[in-house]
Amino acid sequence: MDDSAVDLQLDRPHSARMYDYYLGGTTNFPADREAVSRVVTAFPQALIAARANRGFMRRATAYLAEHGLRQFLDVGTGIPTQPNLHEVAQAIVPDARVVYVDNDPIVLAHAQALLISSGQGRTAYIEADLAQPEEILKTSVLHETLDLSQPVALSLNAVLHFVTDDAQAYRIVDTFTDALAPGSALVISHGTPDFSDTLESAAGVYRSVGTAVGIRDRARFTRFFERWELVEPGVTLTHRWHPDAATVASGITDSESSTYVAVARKLG
Ligand SMILES: C[S@@+](CC[C@H](N)C(=O)[O-])C[C@H]1O[C@@H](n2cnc3c(N)ncnc32)[C@H](O)[C@@H]1O
């Protein structure tokens, strides 16, 4: 696409580029890095937390691919980072189909990396707002790629804390839940203040640069799964969800993670 067609506001910190910097990516600029340094001053564990979140995404996606899921809907995708979700899924299920959704022009500008599917599978990208799930569910691109009469794994990783109003956040998940077939899966990761006194001040840095953030405690996080059956071990922290050897070896603490996660299946 023609990058000049959108104003990427490189002079302002931006949450997707800040997250890219946490992950060691190169799609970030001085304003993003300066904001990250303020986040890290408030919450020194931020880089560890972001990388642990990405590790959870990889393990949850692989788990679901190994347990029969062939279709994935990833909302709040972020700037492409190796491995992207479709690469994890298609390494296990080569014909897996993946739809990515983000509302950020900078993610769209880099979306090409998300569209390099395996030969047998398929990927697509939709620029849309999580706050309007009905619009996402109506798009022709989604229906050309996914069959909603069959199970879909919906990932909402590190994105629902940008929807600060509880009623709106629960309505979003309920709307997707209504649209998904039995056997579908729900994957959520979400920042929490439960293990650190300082994550809230890091959220304040985001607010100061114009990005609303609302981290949630365990009860408010668990509410997202009201209509779902949790997969073992239920609601936990990134590094505690089916940890692989590298995760165990990392020695990450609950405070460093400060991110609740869960994976659930939809009953028939
Ligand atoms: C912290 S990144 C998470 C990336 C990826 N899901 C992960 O967990 O590694 C959050 C992403 O959510 C996107 N996002 C935030 N609010 C959104 C909204 N209302 N609709 C769609 N995407 C949104 C941001 O643009 C950003 O790319």
Automatic annotation (TrEMBL):
Residues of the signal peptide: none
Enzyme Commission code: 2.1.1.-
BP-aspect Gene Ontology terms: methylation
Transmembrane segments: none
The organism's place on the tree of life at top rank: Bacteria
GO molecular-function terms, A-Z: methyltransferase activity
Keywords, sorted A to Z: Methyltransferase, Transferase
Keyword Transferase among UniProt keywords: yes
EC supergroup of this enzyme: transferase
The UniProt record lists the keyword Transferase: yes
InterPro entries: SAM-dependent_MTases_sf, SAM_dep_MeTrfase_SAV2177_type
Protein name: SAM-dependent methyltransferase
Organism (species): Actinospica durhamensis
